[in-house]
């Protein structure tokens, strides 16, 4: 009976903490929505239950939310206003643990486009002409040398003793 009472008290305390946490998150999300110059907000790392509460609060408020971070201790939630919903590239940057930099992303996009154009140009040129990709003499030069054939050719002289 004593243990059951203690358990019930702990459960009530946990429930109260969750309700308080939810109220705090609702206030923070409300402040975030009213902050005009803030397209996204990153929250401190929190445990799984707290993250799920925050995701729920964000969803009710009409926001987009994602969790980032590798291990349980460092996972955090980022909340985005709908009009500033993140692109796939932006999400990938956060997943890699990088800060999102639109200028750098634009540069990467341009480089990818350039690479695609070069690849397209190569395809338009058509396949390489048939034949070996290199000269076998070059491949075996270290074995036969470049002068061996010429030296061998000079030694072949007609032998006058046989009457040729």
TrEMBL record:
Residues 98-113 have a biased composition (Basic and acidic residues). One of its GO terms (molecular function) is nucleic acid binding. Residues 19-82 form the R3H domain. SMART domains: R3H. Residues 98-139 are annotated as: Disordered. This is SPAG7 protein. The gene is Spag7.
């Amino acid at each position: 009976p004593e243990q059951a009472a203690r358990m019930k008290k702990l459960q009530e305390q946990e429930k109260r903490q969750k309700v308080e946490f939810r109220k705090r998150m609702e206030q923070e999300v409300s402040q975030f929505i009213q902050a005009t110059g803030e397209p996204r907000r990153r929250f401190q790392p929190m445990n799984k239950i707290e993250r799920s509460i925050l995701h729920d609060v964000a969803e009710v408020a009409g926001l987009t939310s994602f969790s980032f971070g590798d291990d349980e201790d460092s996972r955090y939630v980022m909340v985005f206003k709908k009009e500033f919903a993140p692109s796939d590239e932006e999400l990938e940057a956060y997943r890699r643990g990088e800060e999102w930099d639109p200028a750098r992303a634009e540069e990467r996009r341009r480089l990818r486009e350039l690479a695609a154009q070069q690849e397209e140009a190569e395809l338009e040129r058509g396949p390489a002409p048939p034949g070996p990709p290199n000269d076998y003499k070059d491949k075996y030069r270290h074995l036969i040398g470049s002068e061996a054939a010429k030296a061998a050719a000079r030694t072949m002289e007609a032998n006058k003793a046989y009457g040729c």
